[in-house]
Each structure stands twice: as structure tokens, then as C-alpha cells.
From TrEMBL:
Pfam families (alphabetical): DUF72
Domain of life: Bacteria
Name of the molecule in the record: DUF72 domain-containing protein
Listed Gene3D superfamilies: Protein of unknown function UPF0759 (3.20.20.410)
Length: 297
């Protein structure tokens, strides 16, 4: 994942910004007292996660899904898979595993939420719902140059989204979050429609660290810099998530990316171990005590 990559991460101030003033209010509206936690990588293919799979692994997803409890499914951005493929993914993963698929690029980057996007969305969901109870939260990632001048498209899309399928959205144009009037309108739209506001933590884009939750789901896409600071940044996230959990957060969806993806499982294992210690979760630590695999630092 090259988005927000920098040549000198040691020069970046990675301090997590303070929460938006309305985040706590949002969390405390309907606290359930229970938090579901899903942590994973963006991909499961062996070519990216070098050193993660034991020699002789024949089915990468089957192995991956027994190490992690979720996957951020980026493959669906590039291709709308047929229903049968989603059924196969469903059937070969454990009962508690969940997929978090990205909406196809025709929706976000080609049609850019135009009025004629509905048939594409319908076709996508017709296939994706075959994940059944393992469908976590679909997410929409807009292009860097998709700006607030097209806010009306966002309104139509969000209000027309089927409410029974959880949705999270990610905007990358700086004005969505740094023009105060636009940002507040966006937050109110997402909150009114129970849509999650994705937080992207990336070295080169600190301008979009809005820290505004719009429902009880924290959907975080964490991008490491292949630098020692990656671990201390994760420590800070554990602290913030614990605070949110203590104040009513119901869903943690945290996905670890790296510019060199092979290190993602190591970071994820470190993060999961910290979550278990601080939040009282009992998530499996990937590849713990597995001979010949990458080891947790």
C-alpha cells in the first residue's frame, strides 16, 4: 500500500490527534457493553505475505483464516467476483471469521457515485451477500481527487445504501475533513445513516486523521512505514481503542498494511498481543510458536 508513504518516517510526528468533540457523544448514545474485535491484513496471497505460510501450504486462505479472524478484502476492488466465489470463501473459513470487502472501483473511481451507479452496486452486493454471516462491513474508498463539490453524490449514495448491510466510507481529498463546514455536514450525514467514518493512519497524510467516529464502529486502516515507529504507533492505538471501548464502542475493525506487505503479519501479531493484554480480548496471535515462520518481535 503506497498511499501516504514517505522516505523519512523518522521525521513524522505520529502522535494520534485528540478525538473530535462529538466522538464521545456518538459512542455513548447506545452502548451495549460488548465489543467485537476483528484484526487482519489486507491480502492473504503468498506472494505478498512472504514468510508467513509454512512450506507446503496448499490453500492460503484456509491457513490465513486459522491465524486471523478477519481480512480486509481488497481483491473485490479490482473485480466483481461471481456469487460462487464468495460461497467458496465462506465455506473454507472458520465460523467466527469475517470478510470486510472493498467496493469495486467502478463504483468509486470510474462512475464516482454518479446516478447510474446503482446497478453496479446491486450486482456487487448480489455476489457479496453470499458471504452470509461472515460478511463484516463493506467499505467504500474514494479517489484522492474526489472533492466536496460532488457532495450531492455522496448524499444520494449513502441514503440509498441498503441499511441491513454495514457500510464504512473513506475519503482522501483533504477538504472533506479540513473544511469545517463540509466536515460537519459529512459527519451528520454518516451518523444519520449509521455509516462508519474510516480512519486512515498513514505517514504522509496526517491531514485526514479526523478522529471522528460516526457510529459505534471504529474502522481503522493502519499503514506502517516499515520503521521502528510502527510499533509505538500501534501502542498508541491500543490506548485509544481501550478508551473508546470503555465508552461504548461496539466494533473494532483494524487492518494492518505495510508498504512492504510481508511485515504486516508481524505488526498484526504485535498489535493483537497488546489488545489481549490491555482490552481483555482473547484473539489468537498469528503464527505463535510456529517453527520456521516469522517471529513476533
Amino acid at each position: 500500500m503506497k498511499f501516504g508513504s514517505v522516505d523519512h518516517p523518522e521525521e513524522i510526528d505520529f502522535t494520534l490527534p485528540k478525538d473530535h468533540t462529538d466522538t464521545l457523544k456518538t459512542l455513548q448514545k447506545n452502548p451495549s457493553g460488548h465489543t467485537q474485535v476483528f484484526v487482519g491484513c489486507a491480502k492473504w496471497n503468498k506472494a505478498d505475505l512472504k514468510g508467513f505460510y509454512p512450506r507446503g501450504t496448499k490453500d492460503e486462505l484456509e491457513y490465513y483464516s486459522r491465524q486471523f479472524n478477519s481480512i480486509e478484502l481488497n481483491a473485490t476492488f479490482y473485480r466483481i467476483f461471481p456469487p460462487e466465489q464468495f460461497e467458496k470463501w465462506h465455506d473454507k473459513t472458520p465460523a467466527d471469521f469475517k470478510f470486510f470487502p472493498k467496493l469495486n472501483q467502478e463504483v468509486s473511481h470510474w462512475k464516482r457515485l454518479n446516478d447510474d451507479v446503482a446497478p453496479v452496486v446491486d450486482n456487487y452486493l448480489y455476489s457479496a451477500v453470499n458471504l452470509k454471516e461472515k460478511l463484516g462491513c463493506v467499505f467504500l474508498q474514494m479517489h484522492n481527487n474526489f472533492a466536496p463539490k460532488d457532495f450531492d453524490r455522496v448524499i444520494n449514495f449513502v441514503e440509498g445504501w441498503p441499511k441491513e448491510i454495514p457500510l464504512a466510507v473513506e475519503f482522501r481529498h483533504t477538504d472533506w475533513y479540513n473544511d469545517k463546514a463540509i466536515a460537519e455536514d459529512l459527519y451528520q450525514l454518516l451518523e444519520a445513516n449509521n455509516v462508519s467514518n474510516i480512519i486512515v493512519d498513514s505517514a504522509g497524510r496526517r491531514d485526514i486523521m479526523h478522529m471522528r467516529l460516526t457510529n459505534s464502529r471504529a474502522f481503522v486502516r493502519y499503514v506502517g512505514a516499515n520503521h521502528a515507529s510502527d510499533y509505538t504507533r500501534l501502542d498508541d492505538w491500543v490506548e485509544r481503542l481501550k478508551y473508546w471501548k470503555d465508552n461504548g464502542l461496539e466494533h473494532i475493525n483494524f487492518f494492518v498494511h505495510q508498504n512492504i506487505e510481508k511485515e504486516s503479519p508481524l505488526l498484526s501479531a504485535y498489535f493483537i498481543k497488546k489488545l489481549n493484554a490491555e482490552l481483555g480480548t482473547d484473539l489468537k496471535i498469528p503464527n505463535e510458536d510456529t517453527d520456521g515462520q516469522q517471529k513476533l518481535l
